[in-house]
Amino acid sequence: MQNNFKRILVTSALPYANGHIHLGHLAGCYIPSDIYTRYQRLQHRDVIHICGSDEHGVAITISADKEKTSPKAIVDKYHEANKETFKKFGIYFDNYSRTSLPIHHETAKEFFLDLLHKGFLLPKEQEQFYDGEANMFLPDRYVEGICPNCNYDKARGDQCDNCGKYYDQLDLKEPKSLITGKTPVVKKTKHWYFTLGSFQKKLEEYVALHSKDWKDNVLQQTRSWLKEGLQDRAVTRDLRWGIPVPIDGVEGKVMYVWFDAVLGYISSTKEWALQQGKPDKWKEYWCDTTTRYIAFLGKDNIVFHTIVFPAELMAKTGYVLPDNVPANEFLNLEGGKFSKSRNNAIYVKDILERYPVDIFRYTLATNLPETKDSDFYWKDFQAKNNNELADIYGNFINRTVTFVAKNFGNKVPVRGILNDRDKDILAYVQTAPQRIGDLIEQFKFRDATMEMMNVARAANKYFNDSEPWKTFKSAPEQCGTTLNICLNIVRSLAVLFSPVVPFSSDKIWKLLNQSDTIGNEPWLKAGEPQLPEGLALGQSEILFTKIEDETIEKELGLLGVSAEIKADEKAAANKYIPLKALITYDDFAKIDFRTAKIVEAEAVPKSKKLLKLQIDLGFEKRQIVAGIAEKITPEQLIGKTIIVVANLAPAKLMGVESNGMLLATSADGENFALLTSSKDVETGIGIK
User: Fold this and answer.
1) Distance from C-alpha of 290 to C-alpha of 284, rounded to nearest angstrom
2) 251 plus 263 within the same structural domain
3) Do 386 and 493 belong to one domain?
4) At residue 467, does pLDDT exceed 70?
5) Residue 186's beta-bridge partner residues?
6) Mapping DSSP to helix (H, G, I), strand (E, B) and coil, where does residue 14 land?
7) How many CA atoms within 13 Å lie on the side-chain side of 49?
8) Are residues 171 and 86 both part of a single domain?
9) From the centroid of its chain, how far is CA 389?
10) Considering 482, 505, 525, which residue would you say is the last residue of a domain?
11) Do 251 and 264 share a domain, yes or no?
12) Do the Cβ atoms of 131 and 86 come closer than 8 Å?
């Protein structure tokens, strides 16, 4: 954060109050904005998070038509439902308002009249589709036809849902009214236009100022609009549901939703200030140049926050502009777009009934569409929970507190003299807040979340390498030091993970009997040991339980995806496992690949899948366990030169310790194969 900013204003795109929130919405902007604001609060910075329901526009009236009710009934229903959903999912807003409130109408009218008097809103006569049978002009989404750019046959209004191109509504081919199904006629009507083009130069300068800190997807889309040249945009439309145009003698016209919705950020902040008993406090966040304004949204809203809204603020004068617009791309579902009509959606209200919130928060955080579209897969959700939250993070916490409860009377042990291993892990954890914080400041939430889990990985390795189950008898003081450090790392992890998995962090905080709340913890001190020796711990619990295959099959069934996949289809599908999140070269360089020769192999008792292998790395022999027993016999393995990950933290499988991992294609399907050397090479050779 730049030093010249005194406060941070964070806004999240206002969701339409015409349907329930689904996972795609959360990944688009609400998870990133919540992580960001939680982190900033831990930095003890002045930050507020503002949002609310977008309750005007044709999307609302269409939903009302479908549900055979009134627009007001629609927005009342979904505003309350979505507000409650956000709350249960841990998305915290300082204020969640509504654009149907009087305070918003007053704010929008103030802007409209100010721009009108300054000459930035000009009346124009235009041609528009008119449904004679319904006796009304047709708003954009009430007309459907063929897109003039891509020939998509269900294009609506002035933007195609298929190719994303904007066009004049009258350019639609074979238009029809969605009210009567008839072909509309073209009729003249009068509207007011915002002279957006007059702000072209100022906007180009504004965008150029942020060319080094805005995300590439934001810059590209914004520059594309500027390159084409900005055109005047209609700010009024013929509709009954919306904010009436505040001009004497004008009837049946309301403000276009694109014009008034973004002003909802300002009116929501005004409402927040009133709730604080300080009516003018909103001006500190909107009218003071020492405010840093960050606008979170999805890619379909980029130009409205980098061009249109800034132009409105420039026209009004005296307002801060967005300093950054970290827009995300789209989250898809099981390889396809989220679609309610095709039963291809996961609504947050539903999953809240079936799973702990933090599993979804973590899964989404590791898979955010920050630079390109990403996909949510139920199998990946299961793997993130089982292999990371449960086996790494939860496992470290559980083994630590269980050991302390059993061997140290459930109290923090005394810390004695530190050895080199102790010093190394303490130094690593102490620098973690800065590493993770730098990533969050750069809006790299996926990388930040992975770095949080890396701390848990390192903690597990420290526990294994320290072997407290041995030192408890042979060197009790050393054992106490190990567990003291582990408990302090548990505390550190609770703080570091709290922006992503706040509910789990609160449970850990309670377990550690911390008197203050995590929210009051200084972020940069999170890596320092702070638990007093002798502190009694609370009752432990399993934070993350494994999710079984049957559960995931049921979820796939709800989406209409067959849980029973034929063998050949399964094998083919296995070839196209979705790519994992991008990593840097530094991340890759941490992995130590080596050649190794298998010298012994045998089945693990009571297991159908596991084989215990003794491998020769040249400089040492070690044991690894691999889940390949159903694909190859022990006899077939002996003598093979394979590729292994040599620096993987030790783990126990069926009670058998494994010190490394061999590389192979997936054991699912018929495409199993060991990765072996093409010729006889020396064992222990590094792979690059």
Assistant:
1) 9
2) no
3) yes
4) yes
5) 129
6) coil
7) 21
8) no
9) 17
10) 525
11) no
12) no
